[in-house]
Amino acid sequence: GQNIDQPTEMTATEGAIVQINCTYQTSGFNGLFWYQQHAGEAPTFLSYNVLDGLEEKGRFSSFLSRSKGYSYLLLKELQMKDSASYLCAVSDSNYQLIWGAGTKLIIKP
Amino acid sequence: GAVVSQHPSWVICKSGTSVKIECRSLDFQATTMFWYRQFPKQSLMLMATSNEGSKATYEQGVEKDKFLINHASLTLSTLTVTSAHPEDSSFYICSAGEREYEQYFGPGTRLTVT
Q1: Which residue numbers in chain A have pLDDT < 50?
Q2: What is the rounded distance in angstroms from the CA atom of residue A50 to the CA atom of residue B93?
Q3: I need a surface site. Which of A17, B56, B61, B89 has the fewest CB within 10 A?
Q4: Whether B113 contacts B55, CB under 8 Å
């Protein structure tokens, strides 16, 4: 079956760095997405990785290793507004998105 | 970036009635749109894939006669929840993208069935 695993909840301090991991097992692979979702709102697109390596976009970076079925989202200089759920999703061989359950990130002052 | 809108943003209806939710791609054409449902504190669950000019593809366990999807044009897909029941109360989200690897989400529609 298809499976995506990510931690349920993480806590970090304002100004610090946090890494959210995601491992996946899917039938085919056409890229991995990270989304941010604030409570009561729709997800917003953060990043897309289809090749191995690190993609940097401002305070956020996303890494992918296809051979290991592994990705992480790195958030630097954490701000209180970064408190949200972070969803990992993989596009399978049919370009269907398979979703992880999301990681709730709590930022403390 | 691409903009996807949904209407209404929230709706309250009585049990047994039908509700229509619209999803529009405002500045691009989308041959495919996706409909998701999200219950509180849970991840998004794909309900169906909406294809312009053809029948929607429903995920296993989703009743196609209850959740009617119509993708009448390249910028509009509608989801109609027929004979709604309280257990249908949820957050319904659509997504669309110009390219396979880009999916932009609508703001979501919160449905409450009383």
Answers
A1: none
A2: 25
A3: B61
A4: no
Q: Between A and B, how many CB-CB pairs are < 8 A? A: 44
CA distance B105 to chain A (A): 7
A33-51 pLDDT, tens digit per residue, is 999 989 878 888 899 999 9
Work out the minimum CA distance from B18 to partner chain A, whole angstroms: 23
Neighboring chain A residues of B100 at a CB cutoff of 8 Å:
30, 91, 95
CB-nearest to A42 from B34, B45, B107 is: B107
Q: Cα–Cα distances in Å, from B21 out to A38, A76, A97, B18, B34?
A: 22, 38, 22, 10, 13
Are the Cβ atoms of A30 and B100 closer than 8 angstroms? yes
For the segment B47-75, the average pLDDT, to the nearest whole number, is 90
- Strand pairing report for A9-13 and A44-49: unpaired
Distance CA A62, CA A20 (A): 9
- The predicted pLDDT at position B99 comes to 64
